[in-house]
Amino acid sequence: MSNRKSSTQTGLASTLAAEIRTVCGKLKRRLREHGGRSDLTPSQISVILQLEKDGSATVSSLARAEGMRPQSMSAVVTPLQEADLVSGAPDPGDGRQTLMSLTPKCLKWLQEGRAARQDWLTTTISQKLSAHEQEKLQAALELLTRLVED
Description:
The chain is mainly α. It folds into two domains: 78 residues, no CATH class; 62 residues, Winged helix-like DNA-binding domain superfamily/Winged helix DNA-binding domain (Arc Repressor Mutant, subunit A, Orthogonal Bundle), CATH 1.10.10. Helices cover 73% and strands 10% of the residues. The chain contains six helices and two strands. It has a two-stranded antiparallel ribbon. The longest helix has 33 residues. It is elongated, with a radius of gyration of 21 Å. The protein starts with a helix and ends with a helix.
């Protein structure tokens, strides 16, 4: 009997895992749609988020963080500089190095995109889910949070 229960639970867990991945993927795409248009590549977005999280960095350290060569990272960073999303300044500790950092334009773009996504999601939850369903969603989020905690 315990084998049957175990295989049933494993089957349900597998189904839930697939459904969560599918729903999260759709949600991510919808949020991206409502966060403003962006022609940035995934690598460029990753660099922006890395600089936002950790602060200024050299192209070499960004390359190490992304697991690529500095020359390849330069090809990622150059269009960001041309779009005035990232700027370079001499490293005060080593004048031979250039520290890349986010520009005010980029910080504004990040803030506006997040605000737009938050507004869309708040409105969608309010319009599509009853108060009781919103409580159920809160409970589901608590369970999802447990899944990703270390």
